[in-house]
UniProtKB/TrEMBL annotation:
The keyword Repeat does not apply. This is RNA polymerase, sigma 54 subunit, RpoN/SigL. GO terms for cellular component: DNA-directed RNA polymerase complex. It comes from Maridesulfovibrio ferrireducens. Residues 310-469 form the RNA polymerase sigma factor 54 DNA-binding domain. One of its GO terms (molecular function) is nucleotidyltransferase activity. It holds the Pfam family Sigma54_AID. Keywords: DNA-binding, DNA-directed RNA polymerase, Nucleotidyltransferase, Sigma factor, Transcription, Transcription regulation, Transferase. The keyword Phosphoprotein does not apply. GO terms for biological process: DNA-templated transcription initiation. InterPro entries: RNA_pol_sigma_54, RNA_pol_sigma_54_core-bd, RNA_pol_sigma_54_DNA-bd, RpoN_core-bd_sf. Belongs to the sigma-54 factor family. Residues 109-297 form the RNA polymerase sigma factor 54 core-binding domain.
């Protein structure tokens, strides 16, 4: 078989992702805050782009007659009236200087540069104020650096001894001192140890029944085994309840108050209002700059030659494509949201209980777009509705079949499960099987007990045995 080189022409079609198309796809899936950062970055890098600013009318009489000019406004704004009035001025120059100072200049450095206190920092601060030797400080830093979010020690004492080259007795002594720092019970190795330390600090460890309940019967208390405990300690149910009330004042997770994350603030991308029996969609463009091309660069482009002209032409194409992509993003968001409002009209009228099953394909076919486009435009987007702020992904949920052949959304079933549990008798909580029967009677929905348990667990609701309250 011989090998030879040959040239031939071949005509074919293929999809090429241009940089402009990649930018348009990226803008679709950006959240509102990320979009603002992207636009501001483009304003800094592209000299052709600028933010359009509307000229505001002044409140002077001349402005009402149409004779006011920009020069007049600048003169009135820049005039040094204090020097003109001299001694007859109501404020001195020093007072005017103080008023013009930034508010931050009068604040302390700690007030301007601050952050939330961490558990490690709080304990290290107390250790610095205590009478610790250098060796004990090293052991304490090792202990503090190996705490969980709840404040429990995640490392064995033998490992601390090897890491710090310390004796076991020294590590135990330092650990005992840290456990009595604020919050009391931190660096404990078990929940029982944590609660016992708190009882000791509160001087409640002289009660043998209370100590035994904490040390030996936490699992029985968790599973509501109250009657055997009452018989064992020869207590009435009222006396046992007083012990339980006292134990509930203790903190089983002493470090949890320091491990809370930063608050997550949401800026809705759109608002849905009910007006005259219909729903109106208003896109949130507050803070989003209105872009335009700089007229100076556009006019000088015709007289520019060489590499400078190629540079400005490239920047102009980039600016035009960005403005077009932003318009297309807002247009797509409006179309998707309008379709969601039509599909989920029952939700916007009555709330979560009327949420219908919906998938991306249905919305994509309704607005004649691809499913991937709908998926991108609904990612990290939020809408303000008459019933609260929701992510657009919330309106897409699976379906459960009804006896009449129709379907109901899974989120509606979850909302009803939550409502049934909130209205139950705490002494006789509803089991998952009972909830499934009630759903079948009320919604006529075919749902299994394990499905109820799955939804209940997803909502963070405990089982009926743990929800039961004897007292």
């Amino acid at each position: 078989m011989g090998l030879e080189l040959r040239q031939q022409l071949k005509l074919s079609q293929q999809l090429v992702m241009t940089p402009q198309l990649q930018q348009a796809i990226k803008l679709l899936q950006l959240s509102r805050l990320e979009l603002l950062d992207t636009v501001q970055q483009e304003l800094l890098e592209n000299p052709i782009l600028e933010e359009a600013e509307a000229l505001e009318r002044t409140d002077s009489p001349d402005a009402e007659s149409g004779t006011a000019t920009l020069e007049d406004a600048a003169i009135s704004r820049e005039a040094d009236w204090d020097n003109y009035l001299g001694e007859f001025s109501s404020t001195s120059k020093q007072a005017g200087t103080r008023e013009s100072e930034s508010l931050e200049e009068g604040m302390s450095f700690e007030a301007r540069m601050t952050k939330a206190t961490t558990l490690e920092g709080h304990l290290a601060w107390q250790m610095c104020l205590s009478n610790f030797t250098d060796k004990e400080v090293a052991i304490g830093e090792c202990i503090i650096g190996n705490l969980s979010n709840g404040g429990f020690l995640r490392i064995e004492l033998d490992e601390i001894c090897e890491t710090c080259y310390a004796e076991f007795e020294d590590v135990e002594r330092v650990l005992s001192r840290i456990q009595r720092f604020d919050p009391v019970g931190v660096a404990a190795r078990t929940p029982q140890e944590c609660l016992l330390i708190q009882l000791e600090v509160l001087r409640l460890d002289d009660d043998p029944i209370l100590v035994s309940l904490v040390r030996d019967h936490l699992e029985d208390l968790e599973k509501n085994r109250y009657k055997p405990l009452a018989r064992k300690f020869k207590l009435s149910m009222e006396d046992l309840k007083s012990y339980l009330d006292l134990m509930q004042t203790l903190d089983p997770l002493p470090g949890a108050s320091f491990s809370g994350g930063d608050s997550f603030y949401v800026s809705p991308d759109a608002y849905v209002y009910e007006y005259d029996g219909d729903f109106v969609i208003v896109l949130n463009e507050d803070g989003l700059p209105k872009l335009q091309m700089n007229s100076f660069y556009v006019e000088t482009l015709a007289s520019t030659k060489g590499e400078d002209k190629e540079y400005f032409q490239e920047k102009m194409r980039s600016a035009q494509w960005l403005m077009k992509s932003l318009y297309q993003r807002q247009r797509t968001l409006y179309k998707v949201l309008d379709s969601i409002v039509r599909f989920q009209r029952g939700f916007f009228q009555s709330g979560v209980s009327k949420l219908k099953p919906l998938i991306l394909k249905e919305v994509a076919e309704d607005i004649e777009m691809h499913e991937s486009t709908v998926s991108r435009i609904t990612t990290s987007k939020y809408v303000s509705t008459p019933h609260g702020i929701y992510e657009l992904k919330f309106f897409f949920n699976s379906a459960l079949g009804l006896d009449d052949g129709s379907q109901v959304g899974s989120e509606s079933v979850k909302a009803l499960i939550k409502k049934l549990i909130s209205e139950e008798n705490s002494k006789k909580p509803l089991s998952d099987e009972k909830i499934a029967e009630m759903l079948k009677d009320e919604l006529e929905v075919n749902i299994a007990r394990r499905t109820v348990a799955k939804y209940r667990t997803a909502m963070g609701i405990r089982s009926s045995s743990k929800r039961k309250q004897v007292f």
